Amino acid sequence: MKQVVLFLSILLFFSCKQNTQDTDVINVYTHRHYESDQELFRKFEAQTGIKVNVINASADELIQKMTLEGRNSPADVLITVDAGRLHRAKESDLLQPIQSKIIDSIVPNYLKDKDNQWFSLTKRARVIAYAKDRVNPEDLSTFEDLVNEKWENKLLIRSSGNIYNQSLLASIIANHGDEAAKEWVAGVVKNMARSPRGNDRDQVKAVAAGEGDLAIVNTYYIGLMAHSNNPEEVNVVESIGIFFPNQETTGTHINVSGAGVAKYAPNKENAVKFIEFLLSEEAQRVFALSNFEYPVNTHVEVSETLLQWGSFKEDTLNLSELGENNKKAVILFDEGGWR
Amino acid sequence: MMKEAGDNKIFSFKNRLLRLRRDSNRWSLITLLVVFLIALPVLTIIFELFDGPGESWMHIVKNLLGQYVSNTVFLLIACSVMVLILGVTASWLVARYEFPFRKQLEWLLILPLAIPSYIVAYAYAGILDYGGSLELIQRYLGMEFTRIDIMNRFGLAFVLSISLFPYVYVSTRAFFLNSANNLLEASRMLGVGEIRSFFKLVLPLSRPAIIAGMILVLMEVLNDYGAAYYFGVNTFTTGIFRSWFSLEEPETAIYLSALLLLLVFALILFEKWQRRKIQYANESKKNERIYRKTTSKGKQFLIFCLVITPVIFGFFIPVAQLLYWAFLTYPSVFEYDFILLSMQTFGIAFLTATVTVILATLLIFAAKWNRISIIKSISRLGVLGYAIPGAVVAIGVMIPILALDRWLMDLVYKISGSPGGFIIHGTLFALVYAYAVRFLAVAYNPIESTALKVSNSIPDASKTLGVGNFKTFFKIEYPLIKTGLLSAFILVFVDVLKELPLTLILKPFQVNTLAVKAFEYASDERVMEAAIPSLFIIFTAAFPVIFLNKLLVKK
């Protein structure tokens, strides 16, 4: 009995120590969990004296959490790794519009919400990784062309549960309409070298091993592999080439990670300051150098690895459209039998 | 006519109420209270069902449900068979025979549980992958690379079985150590051979223990998300996440969870029905020395090989791969914070395991001491939390806690005049409560299976002599079920160490666990970097496992 009392008192003790509403605090709900981010949070703390409290989880879980918490939610800033989720947060009435000259001067229109409710922080491009020894890059042109029968049994791509694939299809729906998207799904499924499995890195490895010739992957993961501690992965990257598709048409599909201020943010001013900080040249340089992402702030150079792959024309479709078409994309994937 | 009239009288509503009142005691109330607390999140989820599924429900039924059902059923069957063979063989050999390294293997057999199954999946994929360890070894030996494709449902069944069989091992071993010995002696004295008595006597008698472990395994299999998603196998749980996250319909996800719950409920009922009225009590004396057979050197070696095989596949191979990755990545990943983080994780797991074991014991015995049979049946509802994905449990916990919080905040506002933040939500209390909801089954099953074997005669005698329930429990039942309690504690402890989705959603700002750290890397496809925090999880788990195992084996 004594032990029970003891434990209850310990629990009560812990229950009481929660201070999320002091003036010098900001509560960040984030899907990004990189060391570079933690480094930035520490920098922000040092510069402003505002303590950064972090909850890491997937964007969907964070959105659910904010919804349930309602107007008492301690969240000030929501950070996700794709535009679709930010759009969903906005649709669920979880964000608020922000007026900031600093932010407006850095983020171009297509990389932010129409009503200024969220802003991109970094960009990733979805590209085609091809086997240098078997594929002539001149045969490659667009994502749409991948359904061509010359690629039968040659395509590698991960499962449709992955958000980057969903966003890619959402962009095709937005650019070309439902019917075209449906045909594209059917064509890609037909050309797959194997049923989808593993992550982006696994697709690149499979190309190097000859299981297929082309893999649709994010630049960001190839960057990570090129700098991997595992010499095998470095070898793999050396055997593949990077192709930016759709250069002659819509531009290469990009996705972003971005941030918005919570509707009921208890520390709104700090939240705006925080986003401005993340877009500053200093912070953007950290993003660019440590994580192989493309910075949104154009005054900052991309990392050397990305520089080698050259510059490219990006799809300037407003990113809100990815969110609007996300669900439709998932249904098309399921109907087309894309696991 | 007469008879009918009489019946009506006896079974009239008023009479029933009277009988309920006569039979109820404070234990009925306590049982109901604990069940209510534990089942509240589950009931919340079930309550949400009345909103109906989302508009994508038809889409799921048409395009996906068949796949979910066939893959899930396949996994359930394949994993049952494998864990049954692995778990029972290992526990039997360890409990009955003397062979080299037996003492070490006893606790090594528990350790596969300490590696989150998605990490085991990553490790095996890493070994068998292009440029993986197997290829490196074969290249070094000058052999041709033979690739084994593990990323399919057979591979998934293998990975899940090899990392979950310790549930069966732990619960059956507790039984074998406790009471199988004298039974077997009796049977041998009557001239029945070893193998025959195993199948005829020991296996049927150990059924509650085996089933207790199996139910945990099956629930864990139903719950797995990470490994199934990575291997590209669509199951119910990947479907729940797909409808929640990709189709943006939490209500459809809840509908799928409810189907899953039905499946689990069916499993439990089936087991109950099978067991029916069989009583497993026996009057085994405690403090009896365990007698282990010593066989010839050759046989000893054979037994050693049999026992070490699951340890090799479930522990040494994945750990070796993790160590290799850790070696490659430690300059960039290792921080001294990890040691602090281990201690924090250890503390949370310890606290949770204690709370959960106390709750489970309370539930089992309160149900036993209460006299209303319907309440006895209701008490089993407490185990349902384990079948639901952690993320869904988290939602189920948040809804009532937030409701309570809003009420409390109103109260605080009325009294003090200033608005405050959440009082329970976002604290360690909420997290531990959610863990308890989720892991009650893990504690419940091993305790119940040992409690079943305590015959009622001694406690009954004690109570006839006027000793209270509590005192009787501590004097008589507690020593008899101690092995079950310890097993339960170990299992919950290890489970909390590696728990992820629930922790992510409910953890307070200041709290972090090793599993969260490992996930941060793994979710970013930096599996190699996840090796170091994963190894920390394993080492943090190893200490209590070894220590408690000593207590458990020591008579």
Structure description:
The complex is a heterodimer of chains A (339) and B (555). Chain A has 339 residues and is an alpha/beta fold. Chain A is 45% helix and 16% strand. Chain A has helices spanning 2-16, 35-48, 59-69, 83-91, 101-106, 163-176, 178-191, 200-209, 219-226, 231-238, 268-279, 281-291, 304-308, 320-335; strands at residues 25-30, 51-56, 77-80, 95-96, 118-131, 155-156, 214-218, 240-243, 254-262, 294-295. In chain A, α6 crosses α14. Chain B has one domain (25-49, 66-327, 340-553): Orthogonal Bundle (MetI-like fold), CATH 1.10.3720. Chain B is 76% helix and 1% strand. Chain B has 25 helices and two strands. Chain B has helices at 2-10, 13-23, 26-48, 57-63, 65-96, 102-108, 117-128, 133-140, 153-164, 166-189, 194-205, 207-223, 226-231, 236-246, 250-275, 297-333, 337-369, 373-378, 390-416, 428-451, 457-464, 469-498, 501-506, 514-522, 531-553, and strands spanning 97-98, 293-294. In chain B, α3 packs across α17, α19 crosses α20 (428-451) and α21 crosses α22 (469-498). The longest helix of chain B has 37 residues, at 297-333.
Describe the structure using short key phrases.
heterodimer, A: 339 residues, alpha/beta, D-Maltodextrin-Binding Protein, domain 2, 2 domains, 10-stranded mixed β-sheet, 10 strands, 16% strand, B: mainly alpha, MetI-like fold
